[in-house]
Protein 1
Amino acid sequence: MRLGYLQVSLTLINVLFLQFHLYLPMRVVRVRGDSKLCVGCRLCMLACSTAVFGVINPRKSAVEIVERRPETEGFSIVVCSQCGLCAEKCPEKAIAVVNRAYVIDVERCVRCWLCVEVCPVNAIWRRPGVDYPVKCISCGACVEICPRGALSLEESEVGVA
Ligand code: SF4
Ligand code: SF4
Ligand code: SF4
């Protein structure tokens, strides 16, 4: 009789755990930029293109440094927040979380460029010489090279822009 209660209890705990687990929001790793610390050296862009494409070419980078207008001064760091909107909207389901970041499956991608249009922070690009959209995969190469500590990797929930 006692064994029966124990089995029922264990089954209940299992069910509750699975339910809880299923409803946990998915967590991703994103690059966070602190534009106040950025001096515009663009080493991050060089590190990114080297890590992803094996070439030193800032025009292939997935992180972009934008010089602000003279009246505001400084630089803005533009990088994917891993919010997942592009994955949600992709008609081919070609974008999915791999190693805790949204990654494009170039075999599935049909080059409709809808993802580029929908990104709320304009952090997925058409790049010269690359025939598919380029976005950050949170590899951390830019974080390591930044001499100002303006970039960091942090965990966040999917859907946080
Ligand atoms: S490496 Fe750091 S300081 Fe240099 S441009 Fe990139 S974010 Fe700014
Ligand atoms: S919509 Fe933009 S910010 Fe969101 S995951 Fe896609 S590229 Fe990143
Ligand atoms: S360009 Fe490719 S990844 Fe982007 S929405 Fe279209 S099929 Fe999806």
Protein 2
Amino acid sequence: MKKFTDTVVYKIGFVLIAGYMLYTTISPLIDSPVKAFKCYFNDKTTSVFFASGDSGLTYLDTLKEAGINHFMFLSHESDKANFHSKYLEFNPNSPGLNSVFKKLDEHGFDYSIIFQFFYSPTIPDSLKQADQYGDDRSTDWQSLACPNDTNFINNRLLLLEEVLSIFKPEIIHIDFLRFQYFWEEQGITAPGDTSRVFCYCERCQKSFANYSGRKLKNYIDMHDYAFGIGRKIYLEWRSKTISRVLSLIRDSRDRISPKTQISVNIVPYLPSNKNIMTFATGQDITEISKYADILSPMLYSEILNTDLQYFEKYMKGLAKTSKVDIIPSIEIYIYTVPEMIFLQKEFGGTYSLFHLGEFLESDSGVRRTILGFN
Ligand SMILES: [Zn+2]
């Protein structure tokens, strides 16, 4: 794989991590460190890996020996559920969460569920988020529903309650709980490019007009006010729009599965860039921390430009800003090993890793260097 380098320096790092990963310490933040892989059944390798009777399952014990103790699975992908749901069709690529969880129980692993909230590429254009020029209703992969559409939110909450009531997971990871924003392309290490933000649809215009008490004729009015003198109240409205939905998620959790912890995936702007993050995504660490039990920053090396310094600064800043637990989400990349060593030393070694399929498809040399086994 082209992502991995063969230099001696990295190999030394890779060997070091194997030792670190076999050495378990108690995290200062989470009772026992979560060392997880995130799983998506839309990649074939992952489906085959967990499919019934596949010989690949012998890897589970080897993954365990290498320190992995937890798997995270998507409840649904787009409009297909990975379990038999009342609300969505069954995903034909999925072996089904029930059988997967049974296997993980047999092999002594923990598991949890990732729930994509606003991400929904199959919704009609009218439900999609509009940018500040009043258009787009995006054709991009990252298609999120408007966070002010009551019907969509209520339907999602029903699906969430179904997942909670069937599986009672240890953790539910809420993903795509935000306004749409192409942070993967626009980057987050720069002060912030908010030349294109969402959502300025009629629902959002109405909601913002109510919140701010200002008359808005159209998206142009909303844009001018939000990007000008109304910025402060606009940030507040964005933050409240997202945290209100999170408070509904929390109500569902409290009612259906009170022991389940709520984790929220967050876009990893430095806490010092709080206003830019809220402007772009509606995510405000202080507001989200009122309702979440865990924050999961998406610290993907490739997007951070392999900036280890940023990674370290971010983690330390977040731990100071918010007192809730943190499960950093990291990618398998040349910087994975130094990142994991840092997390082990400073944060008790809790993390979730992308991507299991890619990892299993890589040659044994790569697997050995990342997790210390063949
Ligand atoms: Zn909207």
